[in-house]
Amino acid sequence: xxxxxxxxILILVxxxxxxxVLASETNTLASDRYVYTLSSSRLIDKYVYLIRSSxxxxxxxxxxxxxxxxxxxxxxxxxxxxxxxxFVILCLMKTESxxxxxxxxxxxxxxxxxxxxxxxxxxxxxxWGVRILKEKLELANYxxxxxxxxxxxxxxxxxxxxxxxxxxxxxxxxxxxx
Length: 178
Known about the structure:
Order of helices and strands: HHHHHHHH
Distance between the termini: 41 Å
Structural class: mainly alpha
CATH architecture: Orthogonal Bundle
């Protein structure tokens, strides 16, 4: 009987949290400053929600445990690099690996962010991918589309096409989630 009560309370709390998350969502593009004022736990919850959603940057097949580990790693990377937006990192991760940390490209890149040399640890792989993204942003004078094209292989037709796909996803998610 106590297990039933415990499970019922757990479901109730989860439902209330889910409703709170949905109620707080806006349909407008908020500034990055708003994102940084959220508490870490609230931001991690939003990241988990995005990862597990059926939105353009989500994958409902990702387990809660895996999504939470990814969200924590992204949050840690953003805390180390406050000029980056965690939702950008997640959208990039979606286009790179669809949140499959064991993904390997035909060129031999691997992990969540398809970087050379995968460690097997989510937090290290995310930090490595974020470091590469920051380098590309600096090279592109902080033009996100150009930086994503550089991240995806350079200034060639395929990389630009993939960067445009990323931007479509990012625009949609940023309106829905941030």
